[in-house]
UniProtKB/TrEMBL annotation, chains A, B:
Organism: Allgaiera indica
EC number: 4.2.1.96
InterPro entries given in the database record: PCD_sf, Pterin_deHydtase
Protein name, as recorded: Putative pterin-4-alpha-carbinolamine dehydratase
EC class (word): lyase
Membership in a protein family: Belongs to the pterin-4-alpha-carbinolamine dehydratase family.
Annotated keywords: Lyase
Catalytic activity: (4aS,6R)-4a-hydroxy-L-erythro-5,6,7,8-tetrahydrobiopterin = (6R)-L-erythro-6,7-dihydrobiopterin + H2O
UniProt-listed NCBIfam families: PRK00823.1-3
Pfam family, one: Pterin_4a
Gene Ontology MF terms in the entry: 4-alpha-hydroxytetrahydrobiopterin dehydratase activity
Length: 98, 98
């Protein structure tokens, strides 16, 4: 089972992810980012690619889609906080969005 | 462009849709329903089928997915309220979920 990130690792990961628009979620040990696409097909196409990785890694996002926008929150429920899985999925989401 | 439903039509549609779990959204001229599935693959598979119809009809839901749950809100932004498109998409979502 994934363990919560150690403070140093967590700080380094958050610094790196903040460079691509991820931010800590107020009141939760989670990170969030809003992805914006050209239209619904682009947004949902990206979600579909992410969904396959999420299932493969058995780590799923909380996400809200309104037309071309997808608001994502990542946290590891089992660990009640951020783990390496969240960092890995965040980076995959970024990579798949470019 | 879709027009807001006339009061009688709207009432009849809401009565019918309430039978499958749709309810008016407080403070908005919109309807909402939470769909629950067996797991993420079932939930996202359903979203994918809905997404294709939504794009085909150029009428897209607001939806939030967390693992096996999808919270949906339907409203027609151009009409600032419920239209026939919302009723049609709600029924299609129900049909695709069974």
């Amino acid at each position: 089972m994934a363990e919560k990130l150690a403070p140093d690792t967590r700080a380094a990961a958050l610094t790196e992810l903040s460079g691509t628009g991820w931010a800590e979620t107020p009141g939760r040990d989670a990170i969030a980012k809003t992805f914006r696409f050209a239209n619904f097909v682009e947004a949902f196409g990206w979600m579909t690619r992410v969904a396959i990785w999420a299932e493969k890694w058995n780590h799923h996002p909380e996400w809200r889609n309104v037309y071309a926008t997808v608001e994502v929150t990542l946290s590891t429920h089992d660990a009640a906080g951020l783990t390496e899985l969240d960092v890995k999925l965040a980076k995959k989401m970024d990579a798949l969005s470019t």
